[in-house]
């Protein structure tokens, strides 16, 4: 049995998908506390993590969508809204806000093994922003793919922390 499915003359598509599910959507905001309050009031979402990630120049909050008291496990059913406030104007999110204003910043997809995912994606015709994984929210390992090759959507791969 073939390990790949071929569509016409395009590149082979893997039978086992690299992307397991949508993990989170990242939303750029100017005022994190106001944005958190907006999502809590509008949808009753719960903040499950709030942290400063200096390496990425952001202060952020993760709000869980669905099953607030249910199980959270890699590849599992939970997903999040990630609200991102820049630590300064010269950070990536600060520049995004200046250019595009508040709104959807990136989409994060869960993967089982981020190093394996990067190795698999590296030969494909789009650019990796991160050739090696770095630290993300809630102990995850993450890597970004360049939006220019993905229809303008900054795309993040997320290997959730184990346990
Ligand atoms: Co993210």
Describe this structure in words.
The chain has three helices and ten strands; from the N terminus they run βββαβββαβαβββ. The chain is an alpha+beta fold and 163 residues long. Helix content is 18%, strand content 35%. The mean pLDDT is 87. It binds cobalt (II) ion (CO). Cobalt (II) ion binds next to strand 3 and strand 7.
Layout: helices, strands, pairs:
Blueprint: E1 4-5, E2 13-14, E3 21-28, H1 32-43, E4 46-53, E5 58-65, E6 79-86, H2 92-100, E7 103-110, H3 114-121, E8 134-135, E9 141-145, E10 154-159
Parallel strand pairs: 3-6, 7-10
Antiparallel strand pairs: 1-2, 3-7, 4-5, 5-6, 8-9, 9-10
The structure holds cobalt (II) ion (CO).
Features:
163 residues, alpha+beta, 35% strand, globular, binds cobalt (II) ion
Shape: globular
Q: Give the spatial strand order of the biggest sheet.
A: 4-5-6-3-7-10-9-8
Helical amount = 10-25%
Radius of gyration, CA atoms, in whole angstroms: 17 Å
Largest sheet descriptor:
8 strands, mixed
- Listing every helix as H and every strand as E from the N terminus to the C terminus, the arrangement reads EEEHEEEHEHEEE
Which structural class best describes the helix and strand composition? alpha+beta
- Alpha carbon gap, first and last residue: 34 Å
Mean pLDDT: 87
| Beta-strand residue fraction | 25-35%
Number of helices: 3
What is the number of strand segments? 10
Low-confidence stretches: none
Q: Which molecules other than protein and nucleic acid are bound?
A: cobalt (II) ion
- In quaternary terms, these chains amount to single chain
């Amino acid at each position: 049995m073939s390990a790949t499915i071929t569509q016409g003359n395009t590149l082979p598509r893997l039978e086992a998908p690299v992307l397991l599910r949508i993990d989170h959507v990242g939303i750029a905001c100017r005022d994190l506390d106001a944005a958190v309050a907006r999502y809590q009031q509008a949808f009753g979402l719960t903040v499950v993590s709030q942290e400063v990630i200096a390496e990425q120049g952001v202060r952020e909050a993760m709000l869980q969508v669905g099953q607030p008291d249910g199980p959270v496990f890699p590849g599992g059913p939970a997903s999040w809204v990630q609200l991102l406030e820049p630590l300064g104007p010269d950070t990536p999110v600060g520049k995004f806000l200046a250019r595009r204003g508040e709104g959807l910043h990136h989409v994060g997809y869960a993967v089982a093994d981020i190093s394996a995912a990067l190795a698999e994606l590296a030969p494909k015709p789009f650019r990796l922003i991160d050739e090696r994984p770095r630290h993300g929210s809630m102990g995850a390992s993450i890597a970004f793919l360049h939006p220019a090759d993905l229809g303008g959507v900054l795309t993040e791969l997320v290997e959730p922390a184990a346990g």
